[in-house]
């Protein structure tokens, strides 16, 4: 019956758009950012549904692995199944999920870093603070919709613009003056890419992108002119204006992107014929066309679902990772082929990790902090960043009694490390990540 | 046409200079429709003596009634009808020297003939009575001009029976069928040769009534909310009944079923059936509400990809659509498809560290009943002193509620409760397995404590009642029903009025769906504003299903292959029955980027899918779906003779006549530029259907 779990995606929602625009800074030429010449792109891969991080990266040192097998019970992976890696020092052994051979390969090539126990936080938070009621917690922890939104917006109260969009606000000045969007989603609308001034473009992977014409060419010109008038006159009704604006943005940008892709550098790297494979292939095509579009900075959003595995975690997550591993590996290979491996940094997000212990259905439920991957030629890879939680139910890192890990690294720190590499300067990072000031470090070091 | 002349002969006699006498006449020939006049002007040169001008028609001075008459100054008036055999006459002017003696004859100095062709009049219709006829035989009296006994009247190119009354009146008889209810009758009078010509178009409509109880515009707005889109006949019906009788009729109508034959077929066949019902079922409101409930109480084919499981779930939604909300809650809670989707089926009580699966307990509260934050009745959040919203529950309550729902399994064929977990079976609701039910005390919401030792059935009922009676349900579900059916941004007053009806239907009953649906659809805020008076935050974007269904219904499309429709809505990011997650096809809390407004359906309107929508329209109107979708464009083709009438009709069909003036002007210009009748119709439809003005219900 439960044949497939996929396409569990797009459960994000936008709350109050409360953030104020720092538009005054946008026009300023930032000397440092300009000197960071050359192309740079960020690629977000969102694992919708809440990826079980506990089985994504597993500590293999004897103490932690014993805690792991004891705590996870029927949903633990055996050491023999796991793909061995170690931190840079070689002292701390870990294992990757058996379907992540592609990431293991890139880890060995030092192109992948793992960041442990990242999650939504207002400020550094401890179990004592939660127990005493002093903790300022993100709103509606453990809720898919809220946490998806918070991972994309870096707003622990929910709502507002996305952190990718705000980063684009600050960096779009480096792009073509034609106003071609800095943010591109190949996976539907994502709060992640909505900025205060920047609006993303959505491109379906593989699909034709543009309006179909018909009829007499002269009459078609008259029709197109009429359409422009209809899409742009003010009706006084916001929903109509917005719907017309979205179609018009598609029309305006479709020709540019189609021409650019057609003229872009061809590549021979093949992609798996999966949802994510198709998405990343489309991203690679657009990156290959970056010069035709006169783009210096781009942010992409991809994602796929099926990670909400309350039941039968082991086969379900294996099925998902069998998509993730090969797609990420081939995408990295494509950036190598295009000569931009050092200019493209890919990272994972997911709304939350899952309970450490199993429920009675051999699955795991909604939890909090989880482990993530960063990948690319600029990544100080082959290493593990962040801190592993103490893998004990009701232990010092459990926010409850099921292994709901309190994040040791805030999403803001994770994102700021990426955004800084992308070119966003220190004062602006605090606009992109409003709670960054609450954390001791804004650079986790995984981007050199 | 008049030319400046050297001498215009106002009177018949004049003096001219000496020399050879000649006469010219302008115009030199004429083609005249009866009855009309033509002034002929003559110019005489060379005559030195006083002279007379004599005008004749076919040699008869001054003409006569059969040939037409002409005055002494050359004003020709045609006869009442062209004369046989060849419908020609000759107008002649003669320059005559008067007789010089009393008995002498005048002498002709010069003459000029002008051939005149006579043609039948061009008919014109100024009025038709009645302009609304009932299905069955009808008679329509046309008033106008230029009618002949030989005048024919065409209705969409088909000749009708005509009785000639006078040159200003005809009576047309014809028949309209029930299938034509709400349609236009386009009449055009034509006269035969000589000078065959046709009249302007005159429009009548087929209706079941003579005086509507509500306007077309208001009925159109209402049916965009209460059905899968207005059709000409559903508009006629509502206009004839008024809203409350229409609602009562819909409430009483038996559900259109998803038949048992679908159970053994892939779920795609149920998608197809969904569209068949959306396009053609009479119980439109029930099916629309059922679909709204599906988008709230989500089960997705992504996980439950099996009609045998899915159909019993969907049957609950349309069977209970006008029942009590508690009954919907109970039936869906015990439904096996939901049990599989949110893991309640075979969810055993916790043992040691291993706790029950909390998926169902959490989403039942977050999505189906009370939501995350405490609400006032008007949907606003209850806040603390710092303005922070108050959560309705925490992790502890998720576990408590989860425990109340443990110990349920698939149904079996044996009598009594099962004693072990059953394998998948979809023939009925889940059954309790008491030994897997957690019988401990449960602290539910709002201080309700369920005592230890209760059965699985009793705990389930207590937990459902606990949630059903939570004050959040009215505003939480009421607002979502408003968003699903009417508008994305209801005022707090609107939510409050609907929640009040949810709490009490007026007879002390909580959760009465008929009363709630009535309150949602008949609220003042659901009524269409007068043109130009729309609130800036009015409306809701049509989701792909409604975008597709409403245009196919408005155009009376005959769809013979429904699966393709399901594929097309998938391309627009709404794969029917396969929402991507329990968070449905789109979130009720999605805000339109760059605005403060909610726009749930905007979550799946991107630059990519917006163009898929426009391209769908192109394929549809250019006939790209071939024989799968047949649309009769003949009436519209006829209207292309008079482009404003074509745009009027498209406006009426698709926008209820509320197209803004600038849009009307833009479309008319483009229609006039299109070279053929086909392309004129395609242009008018394309520009309308691809626009936000069409795609936002308002």
Give an overview in words.
The complex is a heterodimer of chains A (448) and B (698). Chain A has 448 residues and is an alpha/beta fold. Helix content of chain A is 34%, strand content 13%. Chain A contains 13 helices and twelve strands. Chain A has helices at residues 23-26, 31-35, 62-72, 101-108, 127-131, 144-153, 163-171, 217-232, 238-263, 275-288, 313-337, 411-422, 426-432, and strands at 40-47, 57-59, 83-86, 93-96, 112-119, 183-185, 201-202, 297-304, 344-349, 370-375, 383-386, 409-410. In chain A, strands 1, 5, 6, 7, 8, 9, 10, 11 and 12 form a nine-stranded mixed β-sheet that branches. In chain A, a hairpin with a 6-residue loop joins strand 3 and strand 4 (93-96). Chain A is globular. Mean pLDDT of chain A is 89; it is low at 1-36. Chain B is of the alpha+beta class and 698 residues long. Chain B is 34% helix and 18% strand. In chain B, the strands form nine sheets. In chain B, strands 1, 3, 6, 7, 11 and 12 form a six-stranded mixed β-sheet that branches. In chain B, strands 14, 16, 17, 20, 21 and 22 form a six-stranded mixed β-sheet that branches. Chain B has a four-stranded antiparallel β-sheet with strand order 4-10-9-8, with no helix packed on it. In chain B, strand 25 and strand 26 (449-450) form a beta hairpin. Chain B is elongated and about 145 Å long. Residues 1-13 of chain B have low confidence and may be disordered. At the A-B interface, helix 6, strand 7, helix 8 and helix 9 of A face helix 9, strand 27, helix 17, helix 20 and helix 21 of B.
What radius of gyration of chain B results from the CA coordinates? Answer: 38 Å
In N-to-C order, the SSE pattern of chain A is HHEEHEEHEHHHEEHHHEHEEEEHH
Structural class of chain B: alpha+beta
The backbone outline of chain B, from C-alpha atoms, is elongated
Outline the secondary-structure elements.
The complex is a heterodimer of chains A (448) and B (698).
Chain A: H1 23-26, H2 31-35, E1 40-47, E2 57-59, H3 62-72, E3 83-86, E4 93-96, H4 101-108, E5 112-119, H5 127-131, H6 144-153, H7 163-171, E6 183-185, E7 201-202, H8 217-232, H9 238-263, H10 275-288, E8 297-304, H11 313-337, E9 344-349, E10 370-375, E11 383-386, E12 409-410, H12 411-422, H13 426-432
Helix pairs in contact in A: 4-11, 7-13, 8-9, 10-11
Chain B: E1 13-14, E2 22-26, E3 30-33, E4 37-39, E5 41-45, E6 51-57, E7 60-61, E8 63-64, E9 68-70, E10 75-77, E11 88-97, E12 107-119, E13 124-129, E14 132-133, E15 136-145, E16 152-155, E17 158-159, E18 161-166, E19 169-176, E20 184-191, E21 197-198, E22 202-206, H1 216-226, H2 232-241, H3 243-252, H4 267-280, H5 284-296, H6 307-319, H7 325-333, H8 336-341, H9 359-369, H10 395-404, E23 408-409, E24 431-432, E25 442-443, E26 449-450, H11 456-468, H12 473-485, H13 492-503, H14 513-522, E27 540-541, H15 544-554, E28 558-559, H16 563-571, H17 607-621, E29 629-630, H18 634-639, H19 643-655, H20 661-673, H21 677-689, H22 692-695, E30 696-697
């Amino acid at each position: 019956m439960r044949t497939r779990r996929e396409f569990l995606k797009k459960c994000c929602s936008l709350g109050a758009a409360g953030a104020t625009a720092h538009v005054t800074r946008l026009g300023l030429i930032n000397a440092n950012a300009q000197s960071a010449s050359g192309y740079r792109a960020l690629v977000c891969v969102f694992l919708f549904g809440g990826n079980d991080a506990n089985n994504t990266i597993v500590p293999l040192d004897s103490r932690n692995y014993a805690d792991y097998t004891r705590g996870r019970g029927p949903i633990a992976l055996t050491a023999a199944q796991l793909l061995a890696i170690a931190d840079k020092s070689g002292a701390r052994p870990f294992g990757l999920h058996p379907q992540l051979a592609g990431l293991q390969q890139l880890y060995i090539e030092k192109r992948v870093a793992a960041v442990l126990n990242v999650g939504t936080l207002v400020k550094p938070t401890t179990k004592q603070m939660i127990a005493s009621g002093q903790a300022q917690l993100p709103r509606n922890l453990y809720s898919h919709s809220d946490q998806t939104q918070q991972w994309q917006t870096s707003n622990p109260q929910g709502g507002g613009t996305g952190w990718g969009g705000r980063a684009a606000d600050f960096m779009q000045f480096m792009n073509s003056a034609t106003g071609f969007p800095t943010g591109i989603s190949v996976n539907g609308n994502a709060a992640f890419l909505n900025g205060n001034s920047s609006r993303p473009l959505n491109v379906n992977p593989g699909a034709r992108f543009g309006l179909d014409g018909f009829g007499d060419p002269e009459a078609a010109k008259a029709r197109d002119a009429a359409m422009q008038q209809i899409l742009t006159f003010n009706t006084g009704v916001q929903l109509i204006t917005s719907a017309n604006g979205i179609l018009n943005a598609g029309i305006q940008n479709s020709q540019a992107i189609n021409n650019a892709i057609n003229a872009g550098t061809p590549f021979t790297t093949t992609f798996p014929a999966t949802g994510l494979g198709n998405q990343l292939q489309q991203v690679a095509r657009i990156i290959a066309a970056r010069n035709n579009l006169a783009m210096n900075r781009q942010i992409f959003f991809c994602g796929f679902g099926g990670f909400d595995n309350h039941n039968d975690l082991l086969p379900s997550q294996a099925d998902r990772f069998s998509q993730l591993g090969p797609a990420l590996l081939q995408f990295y290979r494509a950036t190598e082929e295009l000569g931009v491996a050092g200019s493209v940094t890919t990272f994972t997000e997911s709304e939350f990790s899952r309970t450490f212990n199993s429920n009675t259905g051999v699955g795991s439920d909604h939890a909090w902090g989880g482990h993530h991957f960063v990948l690319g030629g600029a990544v100080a890879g082959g290493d593990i960043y962040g801190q592993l939680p103490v893998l004990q139910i009701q232990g010092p890192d459990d926010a409850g009694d099921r292994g709901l890990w309190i994040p040791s690294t805030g999403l803001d720190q994770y994102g700021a490390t990426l955004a800084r590499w992308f070119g966003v300067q220190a004062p602006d990072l605090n606009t992109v990540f409003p709670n960054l000031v609450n954390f001791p470090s804004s650079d986790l070091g995984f981007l050199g | 046409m008049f030319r400046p002349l050297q001498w215009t002969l106002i009177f018949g006699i004049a003096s001219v200079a000496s020399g050879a006498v000649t006469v010219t006449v302008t115009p030199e020939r004429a083609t005249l429709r009866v009855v009309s006049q033509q002034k002929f002007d003559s110019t005489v040169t060379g005559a030195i003596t006083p002279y007379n001008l004599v005008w004749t028609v076919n040699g008869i001075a001054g003409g006569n009634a059969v040939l037409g008459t002409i005055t002494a100054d050359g004003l020709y008036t045609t006869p009442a009808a062209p004369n046989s055999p060849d419908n020609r006459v000759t107008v002649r002017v003669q320059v005559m020297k008067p007789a010089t003696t009393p008995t002498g004859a005048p002498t002709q100095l010069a003459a000029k003939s002008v051939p005149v062709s006579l043609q039948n009049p061009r008919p014109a219709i100024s009025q038709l009575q009645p302009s609304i006829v009932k299905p069955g035989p009808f008679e329509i009296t046309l008033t106008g001009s230029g009618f002949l006994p030989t005048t024919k009247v065409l209705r969409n190119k088909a000749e009708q029976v005509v009785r000639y009354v006078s040159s200003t009146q005809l009576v047309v008889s014809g028949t309209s069928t029930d299938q034509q209810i709400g349609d236009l009758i386009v009449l055009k009078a034509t006269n035969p040769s000589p000078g065959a010509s046709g009249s302007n178009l005159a429009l009548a409509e087929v209706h079941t009534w003579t005086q509507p109880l509500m306007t077309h515009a208001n009925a159109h707005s209402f049916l965009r909310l209460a059905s899968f889109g207005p059709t000409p006949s559903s508009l006629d019906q509502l206009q004839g009944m008024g809203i409350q009788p229409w609602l009562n009729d819909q409430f009483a109508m038996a559900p259109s079923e998803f038949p048992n034959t679908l159970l053994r077929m892939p779920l795609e066949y149920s998608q197809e059936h969904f569209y068949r019902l959306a396009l053609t079922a009479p119980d439109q409101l029930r099916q629309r509400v059922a679909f709204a409930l599906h988008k709230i109480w989500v089960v997705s084919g992504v996980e439950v990809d099996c009609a045998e499981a899915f159909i019993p779930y969907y049957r609950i939604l349309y069977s209970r659509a006008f029942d009590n909300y508690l009954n919907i809650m109970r039936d869906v809670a015990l439904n096996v498809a939901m049990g599989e989707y949110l893991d309640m089926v075979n969810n055993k009580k916790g043992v040691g560290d291993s706790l029950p699966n909390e998926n169902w307990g959490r989403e039942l509260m977050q999505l189906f009943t009370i939501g995350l934050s405490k609400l006032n009745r008007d949907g606003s959040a209850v806040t603390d002193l710092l303005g922070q919203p108050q959560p309705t529950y925490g992790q502890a309550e998720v576990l408590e509620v989860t425990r109340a729902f443990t110990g349920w399994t698939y149904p079996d064929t044996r009598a009594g409760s099962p004693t072990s977990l059953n394998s998948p079976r979809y023939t009925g609701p889940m059954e309790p397995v008491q030994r897997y039910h957690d019988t401990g005390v449960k602290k539910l919401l709002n201080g309700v404590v369920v005592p230890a030792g209760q059965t699985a059935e009793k705990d389930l009922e207590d937990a459902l009642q606990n949630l059903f009676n939570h004050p959040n349900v009215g505003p939480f579900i009421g607002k979502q029903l408003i968003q699903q059916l009417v508008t994305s941004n209801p005022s707090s007053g609107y939510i409050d009025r609907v929640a009040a009806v949810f709490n009490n239907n007026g007879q002390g009953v909580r959760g009465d769906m008929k009363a709630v649906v009535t309150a949602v659809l008949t609220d003042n805020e659901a009524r269409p504003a007068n043109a130009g008076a729309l609130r800036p935050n009015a409306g809701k974007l049509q989701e792909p299903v409604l975008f597709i269904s409403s245009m196919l219904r408005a155009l009376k499309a005959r769809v013979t292959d429904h699966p393709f429709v399901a594929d097309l809505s998938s391309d627009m990011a709404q794969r029917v029955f396969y929402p991507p997650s329990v968070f449905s096809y789109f979130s009720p809390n999605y805000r339109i980027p760059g605005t403060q407004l909610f726009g749930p359906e905007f979550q799946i309107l991107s630059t990519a899918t917006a163009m898929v929508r426009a391209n769908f329209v192109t394929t549809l109107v250019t006939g790209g779906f071939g024989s799968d979708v047949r649309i009769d464009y003949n009436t519209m083709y006829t209207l292309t003779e008079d482009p404003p009438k074509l745009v009027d009709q498209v406006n009426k069909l698709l926008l209820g006549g509320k197209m803004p003036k600038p849009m009307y002007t833009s479309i008319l210009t483009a229609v006039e530029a299109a070279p053929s009748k086909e392309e004129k119709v395609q242009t008018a439809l394309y520009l309308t259907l691809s626009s936000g003005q069409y795609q936002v219900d308002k």
